[in-house]
Fold:
Amino acid sequence: MATQPEEALESLPPALDERAWEALLSEQIGAPVEVRYGRARREVVQLRRERGRLQLRLGRVMEHAPPPVQAALAEWIARRGARSASLRVLDHWVELRLRELARQAPAAALSPRGAHHDLEPVARELARVEFAAHFGERGLPALGWGRAGRSRSRRSLRLGSFDPLHYAVRVHPVLDSAQTPRFFVRYILFHELLHAVLDGPPQEGARRRTHGPEFRAHERSYVDFERAREWEREHIGALIACARAGIPFAPAGKRASRRPPPPRAPQPQHKSWAQRLLF
Ligand SMILES: [Zn+2]
Structure:
């Protein structure tokens, strides 16, 4: 293929609507294809056959697919979704495009206000007291509670995260509980804001030492460090159990007895942006 997906990204062709996709794919494949844009996030390209007709559901990310990617999609459909070079071209382009879109988009729909803890005032106070002058120009990262949903891990729990790509801090919703002391939420925010200060801009492929000596030294000097670690040690079991049950934190003795949640069906591992559903 002459054009590399990277080159194609630099100047995006105009958006294709569903009819335009149908026309060009039907022509390239030699059979009618119905195309719909959908909102699937995990499978950007879904192909199924219904009553003998090929139906294709595309993520909006495909709107500006350049001709080499259009051709790869047509070939993938013609081969009925088989793994092939065309699938790799497709996956590679979708990956690049999603990354680019993520870079352009602000950290959307993050909400700092939980049912019990509002992250915003805590972070502002931290910025003033602990990070004087550090957040001047760029301002605080976007703050929000992570999406609720059952955690699957039995052994560990990520209570907060800093996302350098979107310049956003997320806190695990299990902590949004009246039983979680404010000093612990503050410590989690401190830790993530420290990442925002020390980690620097995202670097493709480069492994950063996110908890290097400088980070550890700053963290140890945090006023509530020992107290917060102690609280975490004491409650980590209950935190994990509550996260797995998809409920806010409650100390072990205080949790209402409830039937254990039904085992979840194993989630398919994400392998490709294109998914063949029915053939
Ligand atoms: Zn960290």
About this structure: The radius of gyration is 23 Å. Residues 1-9 have pLDDT under 50 and may be disordered. The chain is about 40% helix and 15% strand. The pocket of zinc ion is lined by residues 191, 195, 210-211 (CB under 6 Å).
